[in-house]
Amino acid sequence: TLEDIKARWVARGRRRSSLQIRYLDKSSILVPGLSDSHAHILEYGANRQLPLGGGKTIEETVALVRRYILDNNDILNDPSKFIEGWGWDHTSWPVEEWPTSDALEMDPIVRGRPVVLQSKDGHALWISKKALELSSPWPSDVEGGVIVKDSFGTPIGLLLDNAQDLVKRPAPTERDLLKRFNVTVNDALACGLTSIHDAGFNPVSLEFFTRQAAAGNLPVRIYGMRYFEERGPYWGNLSKPIVDAGNGRLNARSVKIFADGALRSGGAALNEPYCDNPRTKGFMRLDPKVLTDVIPRYLRDGWQVNVHAIGDYANGVVLDTFETALKDVNVTALRPRLEHAQILTKTDMERVGKLGVIASVQPTHAISDMWFAEDRLGPERVKGLYAFRSLLDHGCRLALGSDFPVEDMNPLSGFYAAVTRLSPEGQSPNGPSGWFPEQRLTRMEALRGMTIDAAYASFTEGNLGSLVPGKWADYVVLSQDIMTIPADQILSTKVQATVIDGRLAFGRI
Predict the structure, then answer these.
(1) Where would a tag sit more exposed on the chain, N or C end, judged by fewer CB atoms within 10 A?
(2) H or E segment to which residue 399 belongs
(3) pLDDT at position 182
């Protein structure tokens, strides 16, 4: 009770009058600090500079690039400046087709400039003729990627997965990185996020976040996954994990490995061909032998291993490797993760639970992909896509995230998607009951996925994830009780305050 708290306060030699008491609105609720278990911090900040999600045709998307150029005199007056944007989505266009460099050349303002545009899912780049020229010569093929070409063998300006790495562009400056970081942090705190798992520290971002931690400039907690470069040397025994740097604000003790591509761009590695493109089963971004080599080594060297796996073939290969590597070891000490775990066979859903592998999933992906998923996979295979309830029922622990900037950063969007399987407008291909409603999570399961289970997935459950004596005081005040209000009111909930380490980081109480 409040009187008990006052008594303990005084018993520790403090003046009763120095205890500050804040009262919440009657309708408000206080929850543990919210975590996003899979996101891209600097990429989100970059995306905010030229977001392309509003372009519902190729022409509209090019028009957004044109407007960006006209609105920025430094770019307008310097045709050599690189223009980078994020978020185009060919699956939302009237005709689902790949964009080409020719489309960018049609606009006289855009023409002749180096333009690099990232797709919504982060697995495809649409680039201009100038960018193609500056990155030439182009190889005939790329392991784990695709250079899309015309009938004459000429690149059309569309690159998938590992082929994206071939584009040459200026490295971001420190000013660029700080600008991107600050944009992301401000939005994250306003959404009630206190912890973010960044799914891909490259050397530049690792050094940046390490500098910010040393300077005491991390307003949120960051759990970083260091990027694995399959063509680079093994570094697991040469580098030490970062644990609780910057007063507990920065951890980087895991490695992120890409097994395959994405469903949206047709790169997810499947056991059987795509229904809407029977010529392909997608592709692995690396040779499975690489997984069997490096995963046990990283685990032995004290690194958590987090593998991006979308397709049922890719998930099966990764689970085979985990199963071998985890024999006779304490899985609680290692906590391997499947990042996305989107399409799994029934047998592999059982294996995830038996092995103790964490499934890091994104509920908002489910309600984005539900509109085209059955066309891609067919009526039977689609039942194994985003099967969150089935994973839980097989004993799997779920850590929930958004994959921002791919999806909306707001954790309440993920909460809503997990418990309804509906679009924000209350729609789904299966009607108002939701898309495969039997796969819905309960509200408590969804909240656990972005609090205590997300903390477990980052080895921080001893300090974070629940509101109990002795843990760090990270919490969020919401304007209404998301655990009891009608589901269609969840998205109208506002964040009134975000508190980290007992200090107000956003809003007011």
Answers:
(1) N
(2) strand 398-400
(3) 97
